[in-house]
Amino acid sequence: MTLIPAGRSLLVGAVAVGVLSLGTAGIAGAASPASTPTLHKFNCAKATKVLTRIEKAESHIAAGLPKLTAAEAKATAAGHTRRADRIKTRIDRLENPKLKDRLAKRAAAIEATCNVPAPTAP
Hints:
This protein is an all-alpha fold. It has helices spanning 5-30, 47-77, 81-94, 97-114.
């Protein structure tokens, strides 16, 4: 199956957002041997790159959530309720537990299938 570049970017972005909001504690919890899913048709040569991208996305989300919260408060105070609602929707999407769990399972599956440890931050 081939994806168009925009679809691939959307998919990678969604994965990154979920993993970033998960944090390292969630990944460690999801790495138990009993709950580790297997990957089908995954190129292990790209495992380190994908795990690095997931970690980078998590750090961007962690850094962006306080900014989004402040922007929501500012919009609410200024009476821009429609804008505040859109920002709140984005915050809710980034903090969604289902997305966090799915991304943590994906990262754990990559680590287990390809025998690659999670990259360490520089």
